């Protein structure tokens, strides 16, 4: 009688505790980014689908706004910084939309209720910190007040605050964030809608009045955004 061969599988077997398995499945459902040193699933954003803005998209947007393509690109280059439209910090994390968390907005939307956490709630603008800590701030605020937290961050290539969700074409901050996290194309669509909804922004991007545009887009206390936009516009010609 031939010798029976050993059982084929000699590989390691992974065992999951029943209570851990749902958490493993949950973490696979959402994009992950480093938060306080740990790769963390972000439940309120969509996976980036890779759709980037192309020349045709820019041309259609410019036609809809009645402005130059170079004017739109100048705003984008000024707003999105060295990281571009999405953050990716490590080899094993996912692309997540570029954000800047603004503590004075969170203070405003929560009526100062969480001002004991000065890094995320403060009547004074500033204290932004490094790009790498923006999601840590957002997650901390999100645990306290979800809607206010989302509204207090600016998102994507054009850094539009989620508080502008309605004029950007969305029914809620959640819908806005979900869509803008999905693609650059959605970020451009939101920008076009946002600009069209504001007469000052629309007029100033058409006439390339960068000071008026920056004061409206970045706030009356903007510091040098108008000059950066003008430089970026001239560099693209």
TrEMBL record:
Tree of life domain: Bacteria
Residue ranges occupied by any N-acetylmuramidase domain in the UniProt entry: 68-234
Designated name of the protein: DUF3380 domain-containing protein
Species in which this protein is naturally found: Salmonella enterica subsp. arizonae
């Amino acid at each position: 009688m031939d010798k029976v061969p050993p059982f084929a599988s000699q590989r390691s077997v992974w065992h999951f505790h029943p209570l851990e398995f749902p958490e493993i499945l949950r973490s696979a459902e959402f994009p992950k980014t480093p938060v306080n040193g740990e790769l963390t699933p972000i439940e309120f954003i969509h996976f980036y689908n890779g759709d980037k803005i192309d020349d045709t998209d820019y041309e259609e947007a410019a036609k809809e706004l009645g402005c130059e393509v170079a004017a739109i690109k100048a705003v984008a280059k000024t707003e999105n910084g060295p990281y571009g439209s999405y953050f990716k910090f490590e080899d094993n994390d996912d692309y997540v939309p570029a954000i800047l968390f603004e503590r004075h907005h969170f203070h405003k939307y929560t009526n100062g209720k969480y001002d004991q956490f000065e890094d995320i709630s403060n009547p004074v603008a500033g204290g932004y910190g490094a790009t790498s800590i923006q999601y840590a701030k957002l997650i901390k605020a999100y645990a306290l007040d979800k809607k206010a937290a989302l509204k207090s961050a600016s998102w994507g290539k054009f850094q539009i605050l989620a508080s502008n969700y309605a004029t950007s074409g969305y029914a809620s901050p959640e819908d806005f964030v979900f869509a803008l996290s999905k693609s650059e194309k959605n970020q451009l669509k939101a920008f076009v809608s946002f600009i069209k909804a504001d007469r000052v922004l629309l007029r100033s991007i058409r006439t390339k009045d960068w000071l008026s545009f920056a004061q409206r887009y970045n706030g009356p206390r903007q510091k040098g955004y108008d000059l950066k936009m003008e430089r970026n516009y001239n560099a693209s010609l």
